[in-house]
DNA sequence: GGGGTCCATGACGGTAAGGCATACCAGCCA
DNA sequence: TGGCTGGTATGCCTTACCGTCATGGACCCC
């Protein structure tokens, strides 16, 4: 008895999504089907491949080794498909994953610089949360990820082999306030002044801590708007609808009517932008991207 | 719709065996099942993969490209299987195919020499007919083949890319006769003297010309024994049961009671021992084997 | 403790895979 | 020309698997 191709596909999706249910919806299956496929894989290999934990699953060591080979097999049939369709092979393309706010910061400039210096390198980009990106690296769905990390800066996950990570820049969080607001009076505001404010947050998700609300702000934050987009959030701030947190890289792109101020009186809210990838040989295109990203990160205010 | 793993396995087997029926028996399937799998593959890819000809099938260009990727995928799941079972990975092993009489000639000595100079290189060996070996190279089931070739030395097959071949040695056929026979009187015999003789031939197959009977011998050969094994054939000769052809490499291993003589009066029966492999990068272990085989071939009488 | 989120599992239908028998086709030989 | 011998294709049938639905059980959080 041996694994089926769909089984391997399911394995990869589980590895990437971190749960049977998420993998199922992604693949257009039922959760039940994915559960069965997972069971079939474990039966076929005779080993436990998944660690069922609350809130999802992670791969066991055996699951990771199977995943490693599964990706090779799946990529081979995908390559066959492309080649038989007459499409060009995909190697040389670097798949880059980014956390949401990287998209408006270093990423476009780094890619533009890269296109000038190395026009042959093709890059595809995918935006996702940090844990999703870490899983995607392990599932070999992306080659490189730009991640956000907050103290304490632990390892990205506790699977083997540990991911190779490289700090691109270390910044401190800022607060975006309407230009007319009393909070915009000085260059800094006190933490206590953040009580009883209207907040503009990111999309609320159970997994991630709410983005947009200053961590440790006193009282229960009153979230009046949620928006995914930085531009939306900043324009909401400009319209006086509320306040929100922003990374400092946005400093020179804020629309008129928005002021960025620092917050005093709490712990320093330091953020790192981290580059992560699987350990092992690094193809030249990837090293070039890393070089471009580092160069661009160095040029940012920090 | 995409190909299944068993479909790819069937494809590889068809490529290797050269016919649906042979692939079926090899895989333990019915010919019908293989035919359906082949049809399913062609339906899935939307292209003709097989050239149905009399006596079997060959792969079309599309079939060959699919095969190339299929082998990668199948090897990946095989590697996963091995690794999950705790077996060592198989890379570094060179799979060598040989035509039958190579087994008693250069092969053992070359492998012995290789084991002395490079004990780390593992070699597996498989014996098959020349066309089967050529197909096995294309199916990537073997990495290298030692083939016999007779004039005119054409290309090994007419598929793309053409196989890379390298002549190891060029020899001329000899005749093994019982020591007491009138044929053993001198060092040579005349072609006409071969009429009305008892012959010891190889296993008769419809595909291959009968081995063992001197090509162009006058009259209809009277085959009184057939044997696969060189030692068997030579002992049959020693016992006076008949005569047979042998490659000259056996010269120093013939049992007592057997004499090797040349044949005059016909076209020179030249044979080449040829090394063949797919074009492309050559892993170091393979180059070492090639080196050992060439060295051993050079030390043979030729 | 109730609700939400996750995985497991019994029951069920549809599809596809493989076996069997047969049709069919091309070459070969008498 | 008419079997015979390779080979492939295909209609019919059974079976086994795959995915869905619905439900149950474990766990966390509020």
Automatic annotation (TrEMBL), chains A, B:
Pfam family, one: LysR_substrate
Positions of the HTH lysR-type domain: 1-60
GO cellular component, one term: protein-DNA complex
Keyword terms of this UniProt record: DNA-binding, Transcription, Transcription regulation
Gene Ontology MF terms in the entry: DNA binding; DNA-binding transcription factor activity
Alphabetical list of InterPro entries matching this protein: LysR_HTH_N, LysR_subst-bd, WH-like_DNA-bd_sf, WH_DNA-bd_sf
The UniProt record lists the keyword Lyase: no
PANTHER family: LYSR SUBSTRATE-BINDING, TRANSCRIPTIONAL DUAL REGULATOR HCAR-RELATED
Family: Belongs to the LysR transcriptional regulatory family.
Protein name, as recorded: LysR family transcriptional regulator
Organism annotation: Streptomyces alanosinicus
């Amino acid at each position: 008895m041996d694994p089926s191709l769909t089984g391997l596909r399911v394995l990869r999706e589980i590895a990437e999504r971190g749960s049977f249910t998420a993998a199922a919806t992604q693949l257009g299956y039922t959760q039940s089907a994915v559960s069965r496929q997972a069971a079939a894989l474990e039966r076929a290999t005779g080993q436990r491949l998944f660690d069922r934990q609350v809130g999802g699953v992670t791969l066991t060591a055996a699951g990771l080794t199977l995943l490693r080979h599964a990706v090779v097999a799946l990529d081979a049939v995908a390559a066959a498909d492309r080649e038989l369709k007459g499409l060009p092979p995909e190697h040389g393309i670097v798949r880059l994953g980014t956390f949401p706010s990287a998209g408006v910061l270093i990423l476009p400039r780094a890619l533009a610089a890269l296109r000038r210096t190395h026009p042959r390198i093709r890059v595809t980009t995918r935006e996702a949360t940090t844990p999703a990106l870490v899983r995607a690296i392990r599932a070999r769905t992306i080659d490189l990820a730009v991640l956000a990390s907050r103290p304490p800066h632990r390892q990205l996950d506790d699977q083997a082999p540990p991911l190779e990570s490289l700090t691109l820049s270390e910044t401190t969080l800022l607060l975006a306030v309407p230009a007319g607001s009393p909070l915009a009076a000085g260059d800094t505001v006190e933490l206590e002044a953040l009580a009883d404010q209207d907040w503009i947050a990111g999309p609320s998700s159970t997994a991630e801590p709410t983005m947009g609300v200053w961590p440790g702000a006193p009282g229960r934050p009153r979230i009046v708007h949620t928006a995914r987009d930085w531009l939306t959030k900043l324009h909401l701030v400009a319209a006086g609808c509320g306040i929100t947190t922003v990374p400092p890289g946005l400093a020179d792109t804020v629309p008129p009517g928005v002021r960025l101020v620092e917050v005093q009186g709490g712990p320093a809210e330091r953020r790192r932008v981290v580059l992560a990838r699987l350990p092992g040989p690094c193809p030249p295109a990837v090293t070039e991207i890393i070089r471009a990203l580092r160069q661009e990160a160095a040029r940012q205010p920090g």
